[in-house]
Specification:
Helix content is 49%, strand content 16%. With 250 residues, the chain is an alpha+beta fold. A hairpin with a 2-residue loop joins β4 and β5.
């Protein structure tokens, strides 16, 4: 039976919370790898997103302790067994040694060009999918002198996979809905914001809390709430997370 200790459980709770609440999608992905390092032993990791065109093509890589000059985004497209796995559009976790023997792995061009040159030997893969759509993949690497990943590592990753897949799915959905982000000035002109709403929007995007905004422009909290609701209504968003997705930071 797979179990996790209290410390790992608290870290996983924090990770899941930030997956859903961090409005900066790129920062969330980077922080995710850093936090996972606290509960899973890996030496390097990379997090790719799908191109969103229905293929298994990858883009937008973020990494942990990896040479950023090395781009492995096309590696998966050239591996027969990966094509079948990524193409299911479902989320799951596996060790590479569970689907291909070590004897065969070390003879592949994939192993020689990716693993061997970096002194890696083992990997744990998190494939991300939602509604039968492939969304991305995270690969965790261990150096050659270490043991393979354990099933307890798989269990920990399984606890976050659906949360992460859903966040990516919503990001892609919002990208289609909203298109490219607009500047505050563009939003003022396009959505007819008043001068007061424009000032509040700029403070919201800059990360100020409601209390800090009230102090900054000297208004009551209830008055601020009314202005914020008007901004949400005009921009067709429901909360700050959606607002950050739609408006460029100043």
């Amino acid at each position: 039976m797979n179990t996790i200790d209290n410390n790992d459980f608290m870290i996983l709770n924090s990770i899941i919370y930030k997956i859903h609440t961090n409005p900066d999608f790129l920062a969330m992905r980077k922080e995710l790898l850093e936090q996972l390092k606290m509960i899973i032993d890996f030496d390097s990791a990379e997090f790719h997103l799908s191109k969103g065109d229905g293929s298994i093509s990858l883009t937008s890589s973020v990494s942990y302790n990896k040479n950023d000059a090395l781009d492995f985004s096309q590696v998966y497209e050239n591996i027969d067994y990966s094509q079948g796995i990524l193409g299911t559009g479902k989320s799951f976790v596996y060790r590479e040694t569970d689907i291909i023997s070590d004897k065969k792995r070390v003879e592949t061009e994939y192993y020689k060009n990716v693993y061997k040159v970096n002194n890696w030997h083992y990997s744990l893969q998190l494939v991300l999918g939602h509604n039968e759509i492939f969304l991305g993949v995270i690969t965790f690497y261990r150096n050659k002198e270490k043991e393979d990943f354990k099933y307890s590592d798989i269990f920990k990753i399984q606890l976050i996979k659906d949360h992460l897949a859903y966040r990516i799915y919503k990001e892609q959905e919002n990208a289609i809905k909203y298109g490219d982000k607009v500047s505050i000035q563009d939003a003022v002109e396009r959505f007819g914001l008043t001068k007061r709403e424009s000032d509040i929007l700029e403070l919201l995007i800059s990360g100020y809390s409601n209390k800090e905004i009230c102090e900054q422009i000297v208004i009551a909290n209830n008055t601020l709430k009314k202005h914020v609701l008007n901004i949400y209504r005009k921009l067709d968003v429901k909360n700050r997370v959606q607002l950050f997705r739609k408006i460029k930071e100043t």
